[in-house]
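thought: fold this chain, then report.
action: predict
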Amino acid sequence: MRRESSIPRENWQGKCEEVGFDFHTTIDNYPYWNESACYAFTLDEIDRIESATNELQRICLEAVDYVVRHQAYGDVGIPVQYESLVAESWREQEPSLYGRFDLAFTGDTPKLLEYNADTPTSLLEAAVVQWYWLKDTHPNEDQFNSLHERLIDRWREISPADEFIHFACDTDSYEDVGNIRYLMDTACQADRTAALISMKDIGVQGGSSAFIDRNSNPIRRCFKLYPWEWMFSDAFGPQIAEHTTRFIEPAWKAILSNKGILPLLWKLYPEHTNLLAAHREPGKLSGTYVVKPVHSREGANIQIVGAEEARTGGTYSGPMVYQQFAPLFKSDGKSAVIGSWIIGNQASGIGIREDDSLITGNVSRFVPHYFS
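observation:
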């Protein structure tokens, strides 16, 4: 694994926008997409990342089953009033579309930092934008990236033919809209029909068994780029179990989409080669470790304690998780995190985010990759 300098393509901004990636640069002119560099891997390294991702998915599913069977919902922050909803979702094996494991990888054994199991973003960048970059700049090389094809196949696996799917997100977020429009496109390529709505457009109507959209159309299947913990706290949250609307990602993903899963995985699989020691209680780790809120996003409110000191601000609080620190790949003053995507239950590609600090945040840059 190495970081290489790369000459940006002429009119790279226009090339990004041609494939729907119009948030390549932030509103303060910060370059989120960075093709002045790239990461190169060997085939053996890609194989190790792929194998670790499949293994992590396997043990995560086993952990979900453990939580449901042992009613260990408190370990993963599920509110009491939603335990039955989550359990029923798992027992019915409601289908999952995707997820993203964030991995520390320095060329040897990938280590799980956290699992973005419910609302992962940077999918458009990983599936499409870096693929076109590869074809333009490294046409004789390969890339760990079958995301687009796997997403289309997965829609066909989990959705009846010709099904109409509502896609909902915070439509004030350029990033969320960009990601959800791409997912809508993959569903349409799988011969499903779709409509984009705001989460604010989801409502209830007397006599309707499903949630409805702003035009009073029933929402039978809804892909939501909106966290389950936020849904649980919303005004309509208590009505989720009473309505027939089915969501992607399903409610059982709430078990995996918070950092409380990290100590549980360590409890169930101590010393697992792809896991880092993690606990809910302080004082159990020595050396350098990381403190994370059970519920936090985009690198907010994270603290590294020990030899590698770092801290980020934010508005998250509540219970904390304590995880052993794992060195990140460093080159040219940048630290890189591997985002390894799972589609269904199959590892399907990676994207790389890098930062000047040790903590990957909302504006950490996306850098393309290839392997030989």
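thought: worth noting. The mean pLDDT is 94.
final: tokens above.
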